[in-house]
Description:
With 242 residues, this protein is of the alpha+beta class. It is globular, with a radius of gyration of 19 Å. The chain contains eight helices and nine strands. The protein starts with 5 loop residues before the first helix and ends with a strand. The chain has a single domain (6-150, 202-240), classed as Electron Transport, Fmn-binding Protein, Chain A (Pnp Oxidase, Chain A, Roll). Strands 1, 2, 3, 4, 5, 6, 7, 8 and 9 form a nine-stranded antiparallel β-sheet that branches. One of its GO terms (molecular function) is FMN binding.
Amino acid sequence: xxQGPRWKQAIETALAVDDKSVVTQLASIDPTTPIPHVRCxxxxxxxTPSTNTELPxxxxxxxxxxxxxxxxxxxxxxxxxxWIEGAKEQYRVTGLATIIPVPTNGLHKHFLHYTQAGKDNNxxxxxxxxxxxxxxxxxxxxxxxxxxxxxxSWCRPIPGSPLVGGEEEAKKWPVKLEEPxxxxxWSSEENKRLWETAxxxxxxxxxxxxDVDYVELGPLPNRRTRFWRNEKGSWxxxxxxx
Length: 242
């Protein structure tokens, strides 16, 4: 059964045509400057409350030590640009972003405050909390689904920091991480340490969309539709000039 707002259904249909087009561009604002900061993020899927399928969240991942973390905590308003080549479709998603790090990270309190205080006006995050959704279980599940090479990237020094020691130092970084065996045993204490280090830096980025600009360049004439969500959680739409 098809569920969710029409723009979400369109994304799912487009990805069924071109499942490689999962790289998006996310813009956030640095609290100390008026300059937007843009970076690529890989779309990891939708998370939707079972009690309201009209409120899907978009899921991404990051290193909790990157500048985007402090930017989003200071100003959660973000915009996402996404071109899906195989479908010839562009999506611009405006919404509120949340960073979900490991619970032992001091920044985790910001996530708890956002959800427990109902900062989303009883939206998807609040509904998921009431449904008993476990974000830490989800974080670890997504982490385990990463390739051994991607996992190793979270063992590096802080992304964007000066490369102390140059390329020779970078050659010492782990290239891939080994998982424990079926019994949960590690081949070495060092492999266990690296795994836990990477997992401690791994964070989820969740975007709660409030406005979606959807452009279809495949059909002639081209089509463009704007979707926006009201305070009650319902979506409206309007045709625009492409």
